[in-house]
Automatic annotation (TrEMBL), chain A:
Name of the protein in question: Right handed beta helix domain-containing protein
Keyword Transmembrane among record annotations: no
Coiled-coil stretches: none
Keyword vocabulary terms for this entry: Signal
InterPro entries the record matches: Beta_helix, Para_beta_helix_rpt-2, PbH1, Pectin_lyas_fold, Pectin_lyase_fold/virulence, SO_2930-like_dom
TrEMBL record, chain B:
Source lineage: Bacteria, Pseudomonadati, Myxococcota, Myxococcia, Myxococcales
Protein name per its UniProtKB record: Cytochrome c domain-containing protein
InterPro entries in UniProt: SO_2930-like_C
Highest taxon listed in the record's lineage: Bacteria
Signal peptide interval: 1-25
């Protein structure tokens, strides 16, 4: 299949091609993963019917999105009725700990006394029912354990090693800190029932590209709870829920990371009451190309996502990571995402933009690479309501530190708004839509992907709150040096714009409804 | 002074033990001497007492159900595979060797067959010796592509050692570790043993260890680094295939016909290794010699053309993960197995899902340009978080990365988009 170049190919060709792909995507949309309480097929048909083709199935699953699941045993493995031994360790017993970790009986609790533990390799757990518990997570900046904290130090560990590396059902880690892991601080893969509670993951130095990538990283897992944790200085994401089904991310703090909290290729996530500050980007929801799980049903509620203006320290020449392309000052973005509700959140002082809705084509325009997820590049059904926008955002795109090569969207946005300023638009609106999806849509349609913006509190004096960038046309014109033409393609709307004053999508999200 | 495993000596005592161990009368497994030290609980297959959530239960009640629970692996052994082998605390407890590196060399007992591979996994320039023990009365089945179908009770050992000077690989050799793959009734297990300073015994180190290693490399440069003995659980990072349920099932890697089909000297006589195993009654189903697959020595330009040698190197060094049934392969969709015919999933103009920052380029392979190919970069670099393989390598393999560079550069140049 020929590669698509959205900036060059003609719209007619693209429209035909994307429509053809959408058709095959529909017929190919089976879900290989077991379960899923409510089967939802919403707004992913990038062609013509985005947002309307909602099919609420009724397959009985073990956990419905509306059930009061908040971590613990939702899967089939349980320790109930089984021998549950506890192994106790103190600082200095790291070698014994490592030996025991490799021969654990299932349903063992490893209790670590307060203090500092130094490891030269990952703690690799491959057993079900394991709990790893310390005496406390300590506070930010503490690389050693105290009287009531347990700190696992990996500063001199083997290259390429994670801190905790876990595959095992019903896994829990609590009350400890993981310091200076070489790669990911806590990686839990292919596991069902995962709890991370009161855990701190941190690297000693801020803004260091060679820090580990992820702090708390459940991936390809199911039923995950991350609660009351802290994540600092990750060179990619502080908290990264990847390719997972059913995740609750609640009351955590993520600071000084490139991305504070990421929900990637994940179905059914409830992201509640977190604080994402001082990252490059605060809290983001996206699908990446090449992943078989098509993300959907994400509720982002009561989070504080402010002051995320840290310069992107993941960025280097020839990087191929997605997060390295994000301009500093991005509060929240959704990319290749659908059925996302954002409510009760606070955004402010994010120098580039508070909220952006982007097509997956903005980062990967070769649609063939989205085949694994059923051509899930289009975004649709985003409901942004009852949030507070404090202001101070959108006034210094990428902190003025522009790089068309590394962070092209930021550079394009900055160029557009530099011209816009001469036309009286003094900053990027609170909600940016790139205007790409459905690809090649009729521009007479104001809101073809059902983005709803309603009942939000905006700073006084706000004139326009929503922008449709028409990125394909605008970027092409801007590249040709025609900034007036490019700016002319963008559309700026008041918060009350009728086409955006909708009330979400149907069926409405239920995840988290019954979680207290 | 350390001796390579060339010519196995008969050890009557140990052979007797071995034979006894594998008869039905002795449940203890091959040759656990009375003084082998304390054993460790076998938690890998242990049973906490309750229902076992889909995991075969070969732990406490193995007498009744062992042999039925082989994690989906084809099992060459008889149905009644017997109880699991109790894992000894010391390497000598297996009874697989006589002698030690301290007293003239570690010598495989009769029945513990040394073998070599035509191209081997690179492990920080460690000199490796391998043995294969198939219990009496049991036979492995030939597999044309996958690892040989080895019966329950099979023991595979790999011993890692460093000579003081790589240019004299037989002199001043320090043995670091011996890894033992054990085919238990419930599946394969990997157990690492670390040699003591005196080189008289290796002790079970399930949690892995790190050891400072210094040697003089082929260019005469002194290299010092911290060598990591992997933990038992880390072994599975490489030694696994994902089954239909998505679970990782442990498998051996190197014992594949194409790497074993080469000569070795047994009792002073040269034999093809596969044919030798067959002659011992340890391998059946072997096709005619002309039909045996053969992987070349990747570093012998006479053995095969450059692409074949490069693909062989990638196969043995990368494809245990980067294959359609390896977790990393599934995640990355980069398949480096020798029989992958798709240029794209081999990496040509393939953008990685998430390679992280600074890995040399945007594509796994840019034909004609190794310097911008991530595949080469990650093999070449020694930087944590960027280097491949994930474990088992601290220093870079100059000859290996040169081979891959030459191969990529030999491809017709192409611009990737």
């Amino acid at each position: 299949m020929p590669r698509l170049q959205w900036s060059r190919a003609t719209s007619a060709t693209l429209l035909a091609l994307v429509a053809a792909l959408s058709l095959s995507a529909c017929s190919d949309d089976d879900d290989n993963t077991p379960d899923s309480g409510v089967k939802v097929d919403a707004g992913t048909d990038a062609g013509s019917d985005a947002g309307t083709n909602t099919d609420a199935g009724s397959d009985a699953g073990s956990v419905d999105t509306g059930i009061a699941w908040d971590g613990g045993s939702a899967g089939t493995f349980s320790c109930e009725g089984k021998t549950q031994a506890t192994l106790n360790f103190a600082p200095g017993q790291e070698e014994a700990l490592q030996d025991q970790v490799n021969t654990l009986a299932e349903c063992t609790t490893i209790q670590l006394a307060a203090g500092t533990y130094t490891f030269d390799n990952a703690i690799t757990i491959r057993q079900n029912g394991i709990t790893l518990a310390g005496a406390g997570k300590g506070t930010k900046g503490e690389g050693t354990g105290g009287a009531s904290s347990t700190v696992l130090v990996f500063t001199n560990a083997a290259a390429n090693s994670n801190g905790l590396d876990v595959v095992g059902n019903r896994f829990e880690v609590r009350d400890l800190a993981v310091w200076n892991a070489k790669k990911d601080a806590i990686r839990v893969e292919s596991s069902v029932d995962v709890v991370m509670r009161r855990v701190r993951t941190e690297w000693a130095e801020a803004d260091k590209e060679s820090n580990g990538k992820y702090g708390l990283y459940p991936v390809k897992s199911k039923y995950v709870l991350i609660e009351d944790c802290e994540a600092y200085n990750a060179a990619d994401a502080g908290i990264y829920v990847g390719q997972t089904e059913y995740a609750v991310v609640r009351n955590n703090v993520a600071k000084q990371n490139v991305a504070g909290i990421e929900i990637e290729n994940t179905k059914y996530a409830y992201v509640l009451g977190n604080t994402a500050q001082d990252n490059t980007t605060g809290l983001v929801v996206f699908d990446l190309p090449g992943n078989p799980i098509k993300g959907t049903d994400i509720r982002v509620k009561n989070n504080t996502i402010t002051g995320n203006n840290r310069n992107n320290f993941a960025s280097v020449a020839a990087s191929s990571s997605t997060v390295s392309q994000v301009p500093a000052g991005t509060g929240t973005f959704m990319l290749a995402s659908r059925r996302v509700e954002l409510t009760g959140n606070t955004w402010g002082n994010n120098n580039t933009v508070d909220v952006a809705v982007l097509s997956g084509l903005a980062i990967e325009d070769d649609v063939t690479l989205w085949e694994a997820g059923g051509f899930n590049f289009a975004s649709a059904d985003v409901y942004i309501h009852h949030n507070t926008f404090q202001g101070g955002s959108g006034d210094s795109v990428d902190n003025g530190n522009l790089s068309p090569q590394l962070r092209p969207l930021g550079a394009a946005l900055a160029a557009l708004y530099a011209y816009g300023e001469t036309q009286g638009t003094l900053g990027v609106e609170h909600l940016v839509w790139d205007g790409l999806d459905p690809y090649g849509h009729d521009r007479a349609l104001v809101n073809p992907i059902n983005i709803c913006f309603a009942n939000n509190t905006l700073p006084s004096g706000t004139t326009t709150a929503i922008v449709d960038l028409d990125l394909q046309a605008a970027a092409t014109l801007a590249t040709q040096g025609n900034l007036p033409g490019a700016w002319g393609r963008t559309r700026h709307y008041a918060a009350t714009k009728a086409e955006f004053a909708c009330s979400g999508f149907s069926p409405a999200l239920t995840i988290g409804d019954f979680i207290q | 002074m350390w001796t390579s495993f060339v010519s196995p000596r008969l050890s009557v005592v140990l052979l007797a033990l071995t034979l006894a161990a594998c008869g039905s009368s002795d449940p203890e497994g091959p040759g656990t001497p009375p003084d082998a030290g304390t054993t460790v609980p076998d938690a890998g297959t242990g049973d906490a007492g309750g229902p076992d959530a889909g995991e075969p239960d070969a732990g406490s009640d193995a007498g009744t159900d062992a042999g039925t629970a082989d994690a989906g692996v084809a099992d060459a052994g008889p149905v009644d595979a017997g109880p699991p082998l109790v894992i000894p605390n010391t390497l000598s407890g297996f009874g697989l060797f006589t002698g030690s590196p301290a007293d003239g060399g570690l010598v495989p007992v009769e029945g513990n067959v040394p073998y070599t591979l035509s191209t081997a996994l690179f492990s920080d320039y460690a000199v490796k010796s391998r043995t294969l023990y198939i219990p009496p009365g049991k036979t492995a089945h030939y597999e044309p592509v996958a690892a040989l179908d080895l019966p329950v009770g099979t023991l595979i050992t790999k011993t890692f050692a460093f000579p003081a000077d790589l240019r004299q690989p037989d002199q001043d050799v320090r043995v670091i570790e011996t890894r033992v793959l054990v085919h238990q009734p419930a599946g394969w297990e990997a157990w690492p043993y670390v040699w003591n300073t005196e080189q008289t015994e290796a002790t079970l180190a399930t949690g892995g260890r790190s050891r400072d290693v210094t040697f003089i490399d082929l260019e005469g440069e002194t290299r010092s680094f911290k060598y990591s003995v992997p933990s038992k659980n880390q072994c599975q990072q490489c030694h696994h295939l994902v089954d239909e349920t998505g679970a990782q099932v442990m498998h051996p890697i190197g014992v594949k016909a194409r790497y074993l089909h080469r000569p070795n000297t047994y009792g002073g006589v040269e034999h093809d290794q596969l044919e030798y195993l067959a002659s011992l009654g340890k391998l059946d189903g072997l096709p005619a010699p002309a039909n045996l697959p053969k992987a070349p020595d990747a570093f012998d330009p006479q053995a095969a053309d450059l692409p074949t040698r490069a693909r062989t190197y990638l196969d043995i060094n990368c494809a245990h993960c980067h294959n359609p049934k390896g977790t990393a392969g599934i995640t990355s969709q980069l398949f480096l197995n020798f029989d992958n015919a798709s240029l794209f999933s081999l990496g040509e103009c393939k953008r990685p899902g998430s390679a992280g920052a600074g890995v040399g380029g945007e594509f796994d392979i840019v034909p004609g340009n190794h310097a911008e190919s991530i595949l080469w970069y990650r093999m070449h670099t020694e930087e944590s978080g960027k280097m491949m393989p994930q474990i088992g390598r601290t220093v870079h393999h100059a000859e290996g990365s040169q081979l891959i560079a030459d191969w990529i550069d030999s491809m017709p140049a192409k611009t990737c988009k």
